[in-house]
Known about the structure:
21-stranded antiparallel beta sheet, 3-stranded mixed beta sheet
Amino acid sequence: MDAYFGRFGAPAGSVDAKDSLIGFNLNGTLFSRGVFNSPADVVNYRYPIDGSVNRTLYPDVYSYNFDFVNLLVLPLNRDSVFGTAHYELTPSIEVFAQGQWANYTSASGLAPTPVSTVTAESLSGTQGTRVKTALVVPGKTVANQLIIPVTNPFIPTDFRALLATRTGDNSSLVGSGATEPFLLRQRTLDIGLRLEAFDSTVWQGLVGVKAELAPGWRSEAYYSRGRTKIVDNQTGNVDTQRLQALLQAPDGGNSLCTGGFNPFGRQPISQACRTYLEVQAAVSTTFEQQIAQAFVSGELFSLPGGKAQAVLGAEYRDFKYNFDPGAVGGPISGFNAQDPAGGTNRFYDVFGELGLPLVRDASWAQSLDLNFGARYSHNKVVDTVKKLPGSESDSWAYKAELSYQPIDQVRFRAGYQRSVRAPNFGELFDASGDNPQYFDPCSITSTARTSGPNAAKISSLCLTGNSKNPDVIDNITVAPGYVQTPGTQVGLEVEGNPNLKPESADTFTAGLVFSNFGGGLRGLRASIDYYNIKVNDVILQPDANLIIANCYNYFGNNPTYSGDNASCGYIARAGDIAGFGPNFSNDLYSGVNAGYIQTSGVDFQLSYATALPFMSPKSRLNFDLLMGYLIEFKTKELADQPAIDYSGTVSVFGAGLGASAPKWKATLNTNLMFNEWFTLNSRVRYIDGMENRYSRIYVGEQSFTGTDSVVYVDLAGEFHFTDALTFRVGVNNVFDKQPPTYAPNVQSGTDPSLFDVIGRRYYAQATVRF
């Protein structure tokens, strides 16, 4: 390595044989990708520094810039039809029906496929979404890498000479030393972008009957049926099994497609090879539901506050799911490779509710009301593809609510609820791949490994790995100077679990409502509510970052920094963490019922409306302030992991869209009617500053950044020319506030589900009534 890269001016030792990734120029020379945040910069990179290169990182390290071609805002078209009808058979019996149909089309685009995004196993392997190759030792796996034998004819001369100097052994691969295959990853630029065109069709019909049974008593029954079909037309996928065949062919694949496949650099391939490799797929998902419900309601008896009201009913729900992956039902790289999946989930419920108006207009209370409700549900799951009986469970949901108004101006409300959520179809049946981002404590850029109180112990764990299974931590150990590649992701093989049970939540709420004031406060209304929610037996896919942190003792559960720790057994490396899963070589990563989520907070609302006669007889001012304070958002996943409070944190890739949890959020809507023909509206949105979510997992690390508080202002004017004609113009994000960027993030440096990624924009709308 010193001799080769010394030809391009690299000092001896600066391109480490173990710690540096090698890339390939079109002229056959090699370049060192560099090591992030270290003196080892990129060496001999011969391509243009264009949009495909992450110029934020270059020349410190070469990294492909996939954000350059990804879409943050997706197009959407919708066509829909709705109809409803009512017919009165008699004064006490009415039949009704409704139907609706809708079609949605949308599209998205992602960067060209990184290959491989699937796992490889030996020819005796049985997993349908894994590549089969004789280059992997039986019982072993290689995650997210292409495996290339030294017999490949396209290997550049300089690189072949370097390969011949190897003396080590990867126990997952056949051979050893100079004859052992090697691992490579590539973006298949010639296949083009990964494009999806979604076509969703939804229809639903309902028929029912209402009847007055007796004075104060009524009944209703209905039956509904619906179907949703989503077709995802994909291009840009790569058949990784065929690609592996090209790489292993003695002629480089020329016998399989014209010219074969040269993976060393941005080499063009023939149309025949593009056709041979590309997988165009129509992935189909179908949901069907049938619901039948009947209930009676009426007055039971008299109380001091009025008539006691009751509802009693029964419900049947039948849900069917079918997922057909089409051509991506095998070892496909690009969009997630998935197996066929399908099943049913049926529910048989009975429910009731009782309303008790206890007091009206007493000396100590204007009103006092109690409300009780309960639902019993029995459900049964069947996996129709794997022919497996799933879970069968019984659940109770119930509630008790109190409303007490001592005086006209103040009302107290409180409630307790037990609710349940049955697992959805994805959690029950789907098997696919997932690639969440992660932080690696073994990187020498981590505080824990370089300057933390247990830096020596972490380094020892990183360098020695797992003694029981050397492939788990690193079959050739982590290099002393190892630096995690920016943006690296864990490769997961996710499996549905038809034995999941429903999760349950206990919710307590209490609050005050202020209204009915006189004088200048006549238009004032305010409320303050406290909530506390705890979800038990949470249905979850365990967070890979929590397992990594547990292995490296961020939670105090591995004080000896032993590679035999159970969490360490999930991790498989090829330098960076390449794969993940329990007993990695054999098991899939499936959902479980585990741990809890607990959250609490306070919601505020303040609204005021008043006339402005000094402006005009019809002038009015209205404003409405909605504000929420998040006290806690604690999540505990597996038994040996702590409860972590994510309140006040911004999400990261893998935690998901919508997972950011600012402490404070507020929206102020103001409406100023100048006269009968012009109104000015404003909306001010506030999002509190947040720490990075990783700061709560990898406590003590210094490299994570968060966000400052953000304020968005929207303005609109509405002109009422006549009763039939209204014209509205507006500006959203008036001050063109750009989304805050932080690292690591959800996507493109920010969280597009929380922050405005478009910027200032204008709109106009005309409404004409005939």
